[in-house]
Specification:
The chain is an alpha+beta fold. It folds into two domains: 51 residues, no CATH class; 163 residues, Distorted Sandwich (Glucose Permease (Domain IIA)), CATH 2.70.70.10. It has seven helices and twelve strands. The strands form two sheets. Strands 3, 4, 5, 6, 7, 8, 9, 10, 11 and 12 form a ten-stranded antiparallel sheet that branches. Strand 11 and strand 12 form a beta hairpin. The protein is rod-shaped and about 130 Å long. The termini are far apart. The relative contact order is 0.11.
Length: 276
């Protein structure tokens, strides 16, 4: 308290400038307390500004001041790119998972319900179109008393491609079909008429297409390079459905893996395909 009171009593200061050369006399300047504080403030402010520019222009700030711990703009960009790639890979995995689930469902059921439902619609259209226009009494008697018997047409299969069979049907070793050695880009044809119940990509079998036929048959074409027909499309026997290739993990070279299943069980295609 005593010191503060003494400072308050001081009203003026005398600043004496003493030159080193004794030939000149000393000079004194009187300053008030207020002016002294203003001079000290201005001097401090100018010193801070000058020091900032000196550190930034000479590069000594990196030596004297600690480095910032935050991420650089380039690092943030790399992190954003990695996040975008992760999101893309997750979406692709979800698509492959959904495709595999559809493939398993089609193989488990043979998807005969899909074939039957489409066939019922076509049969109903045929029945409606075959009804008489009306007024034909003779036609009514013929329909009532004379039943038409249709012979059941047996399904026949043809080769999907023309090529050398490198591996035959061997279910004991897990090989449920035939391997045709063909060049990549060879046309693949439908072995019989039917409806496409699966057309997509799987990790193990690559581009695969499955066709549902009459009498609980399905045919499978694996390791294609591209697929021509899409799911739920109708195909005729000998129609182009895909292009052969070497896609999927379970392949060692360009070829077509071909299978025929009946009532949920694999059968030897060589025994039922024509021209063998």
């Amino acid at each position: 308290m005593l010191i503060l009171e003494k400072i308050k009593r001081i009203k003026k200061f005398s600043v004496i400038f003493v030159p080193e050369d004794t030939s000149h006399r000393a000079r004194s300047t009187k300053l008030s307390l207020k002016n002294l504080i203003i001079l000290i403030f201005i001097y401090t402010f100018l010193s801070i500004i000058a020091g900032f520019y000196i550190l930034s222009l000479t590069g000594t700030s990196k030596i004297l001041l600690p480095e910032q711990t935050g991420l650089k703009a380039s690092d943030k960009q790399k992190i954003d790119d990695l996040n975008s790639r992760m999101v893309f890979l997750i979406r692709e995995l979800e698509k492959l998972k959904a495709t595999n689930e559809r493939l398993q469902y089609a193989l488990a059921l043979g998807d005969t319900t899909l074939f039957d439902s489409i066939k019922q619609v076509q049969d109903s259209v045929v029945e409606i179109e075959s009804l008489p226009a009306g007024g034909n009494i003779l036609k009514v008697f013929e329909d009532l008393f004379f039943t038409k018997t249709e012979q059941k047409k047996e399904i026949q299969f043809i080769k999907p491609v023309t090529g050398f069979i490198s591996r035959s049907f061997n279910p004991r070793k897990g090989h449920m079909g035939l391997d045709y050695v063909v060049k990549a880009g060879t046309p693949v044809y439908a072995t019989a008429g039917g409806f496409v119940i699966f057309s997509g990509y799987t990790i193990d079998d690559g581009y695969t297409i499955i066709i549902s036929h009459n009498e609980e048959f399905i045919s499978i074409y694996k390791h294609c390079s591209s697929l021509i027909k899409k799911q739920r499309e109708r195909v005729e026997q000998g129609e182009l459905i895909a292009i052969s290739g070497n896609s999927g993990k379970l392949t060692t070279g360009p070829h077509l893996h071909f299978e025929i299943w009946e009532n949920g069980k694999p059968v030897d295609p060589e025994k039922i395909i024509l021209n063998y």
